[in-house]
Amino acid sequence: MHNKMLQGLVEAGAVKAVSIIANGTIIHAEICTLSGDKKVITTHAGSIKTWASIDSAAKWLKKVGLGTIKLEVGKWSPNQKSMTF
After folding, report:
1. Percentage of the chain modeled with pLDDT above 70
2. Whole-angstrom Cα distance, residue 3 to residue 37?
3. Count of structural domains, the chain
4. Could you give the CA distance from residue 15 to residue 77 in angstroms, rounded to a whole number?
């Protein structure tokens, strides 16, 4: 679910919930639609959209029009070194 699709759902009032999920050093977001479907937010190319920090993810989601966000940090390791490929 990329930016334009997400904005369409937000404008239509079809987003039930949004979560920022921090796992290791990777931070991504997923939405739950009114129908109960969970979708990971992706780039236009189709890969999972990630952020370097929780606040940058929150700022991006607010810019899209979302104001209430659940934060999941149970598997977050902010001091962990990330792997480069």
Report:
1. 93
2. 17
3. 1
4. 29
